[in-house]
Amino acid sequence: MNNRVVNALAAASVSALLFASFGGSAGAADPAEQVKDRQQTMKKLGGGMGAVAKFVKNEGATAEDAAKGAEAVLAVAAMDPKTIFPQGTAVGVADSAAKPELWQSWSVAQERWSAMKPAAEKLDAAIKGGDRAQIAQALGATSKTCGSCHEDFRVKKQ
């Protein structure tokens, strides 16, 4: 193969990896698809939190499961909220539960989203420390951070 072909294949591979690592939503212009992408991101976050909770409660999850869960929480916390909550994806679009107030109070929402990263970092550090009581405390704080947005910006589940 000549260098041009190799370079083109390498560029295509890197592009595909970047697209996949960002959930494939980088160019999603369809609001219904954006809602679906958001829901997948939130499921990743919830799954991570759930894995840590199962470890804390001694419900069969291992320390490795909890560490992987914390990694998932950290990955979502590091995301830009504008990519997760694009304008035009409120209640009424697909099965979105995001209230219009989210965008009307965007600075508050961003502030709360920003609080998730240090909470997730503390959770990760607690897991690395191995003390279940500290992990439980950090999990509670992280959960509280998530819940503050849900309380104000998500329609309550029936």
Automatic annotation (TrEMBL):
SUPFAM superfamilies: Cytochromes. Coiled coil: none annotated. Heme c binds at C146, C149, H150. Binds 1 heme group per subunit. Keywords: Electron transport, Heme, Iron, Metal-binding, Signal, Transport. One of its GO terms (biological process) is electron transport chain. Pfam families: Cytochrom_C_2 (PF01322). GO terms for cellular component: periplasmic space. Residues 1-28 form the signal peptide. One of its GO terms (molecular function) is iron ion binding. This is Cytochrome c. It comes from Azospirillum doebereinerae. The lineage of its organism: Bacteria, Pseudomonadati, Pseudomonadota, Alphaproteobacteria, Rhodospirillales.
